[in-house]
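Quick start: what a row looks like.
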Amino acid sequence: MLKALQIFVLFGFSLLFFSTSGFAVETITLMTHDSFNISKEVLQQFEATNKVKVRFLKTGDAGAALIQAILSKNNPLADVFFGVDNTFLSRALKADIFIPYASPLLVDIPAKLKLDQSNRLLPADYGDVCLNIDRNWFKHNNLTPPTDLADLIKPEYRGLTVVENPATSSPGMAFLLATIGRFGEEGYLDFWKQLRANRVLVANSWNDAYYGNFTAASKGDRPIVVSYASSPAATVFYSKELLDQAPTAAVLGHYSAFRQIEFVGILKGTKKQQLAEKLVDFILSRPFQEDIPLQMFVFPANQQAKLPAVFIKYAQVAEAPAQVPPEAIEAHRQQWLEEWTDVVLR
């Protein structure tokens, strides 16, 4: 019985490496976070052109995935990594787990997104983390919604905001960085002290905050939530009704948002570098880039990529996002998290 089972497992495993025509199909592994998504049709373009099968290895959120890649650097689990963002950029480069690759597609990516001059990590997409408000709630309650990050501590917004814990949530961390970029290391804790006094609610994840507490998406009682500037486009896209206005709006006042940039890179130790380069090129090419907005609801890094109509009309980009250098984030991340925890949760 055991021998038969072993034969079955080996046979089933071999099917992963052979096409239906009986010819061997090469595989390449892309390590990424759980939020990664791509249309089947777009992926098949790459697989058919290169006679390859892409295997996806999803290992939690962006931070957890990167830690896994670092821990396995001597015996890499994948060939390409997608999802290092600018909050983890310095850590990823310091760990020295990526090889340089100057893709020819970099010519179509704006210089402001290229944070690694060594080209070990190449920009793939970006989005602004910011406050989102429930338009209908504010209208029905005859209250003017906030237009700026600093507005949250005003008495009229007492008990109306839900944020994500920066220790457990990527947008939560990005929002914490927005407050540091806006108020500085000397002033951000005072802002959070006042926000706590104004009865801010802290959720563990974006999903908990948005779908558990935000009035526009749940039976919760918080009409202000930390989300993305592209989230209003998602509310229209997924609505069962035809809408001419998004039911939510992004708050993008001066230094009220933090720009997350996601990168892709080739992992050291890959035995398929040429194929890995082709996969990176594909990720930066228009077919993949134009698929990004409606799959992950962020903006493509390639400025030649065309945006879907719902993005053009409803998604926004902050004109003046808060700035915190990646090296400062790496140097002070733990300190800032501990300080924030002491002030907000204890």
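That is the whole record. The longest strand covers residues 122-134. The two ends are 57 Å apart (CA to CA).
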